[in-house]
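User: Please predict the structure of the protein below. I'd like the answer in C-alpha cell form so I can feed it into my own downstream comparison script.

Assistant: Understood. Taking the following sequence of 175 residues as input:
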Amino acid sequence: MSLEALRARLPEYAKDLKLNLGSLAAETLLNPQQRAGTFIASALASRNAEVTRALVAEFAPLLSPEALTAAKAAAAIMGMNNVYYRFIHLVGGDYATMPAKLRMNVMARPGVDKVDFELWSLAVSAVNGCGMCMETHERVVVQAGLSREQVQAAVRIAAVVHATAATLDGEDALG
C-alpha cells in the first residue's frame, strides 16, 4: 500500500488527516532521512499494521539500510523507555534515583547521526505520551542544532500518523 492509498482509505470525516499526510510527506524543514525516519518510527509506535506497511513502503526507499534499522530501533527502545520513564515521572519518589537496569545500548550507537535518532525517539515519545522522554529528547536535538520548527515538524508527523492509525482502527472496529 502506498501513502496515496492510505490517504484514500481514510473516511471523509478525516479529510484533515488526508491533507496533513500529504503536506507532511513533503515537509522541507526536515532533511529526507529525518522526515522518512520520523514517519516510520511514528508508524511503528502507532501500532497499526496497515499504516506501518504503507509508510514503510513509502519511506523506507529513502533510507539506507542502517537508517531504516535505526528508525525501527528508535520505536523499539522508546516503546520500553516510554513506559519506564513515564512511571518514574508520574510516581516520583525514590524511583528516579534508582538505576533503570534496562539495556539501552542502541542509544549510544544507533547507526545514524545521533541527532536523527534522538529526533525519531522524540517523535515516538510524543506518540506514547512520555513527558520525561519528550523533554529530554527535545533538549538534546535543540542543543545539537535543530530548530524548534524542525522539532515541531517531527511532532506534527507523529501526531498525524498516530491519528491516522487511531482513525483506521476505529473504522475497522465499526466493520
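That's the full C-alpha cell string. The chain has a mean pLDDT of 96.
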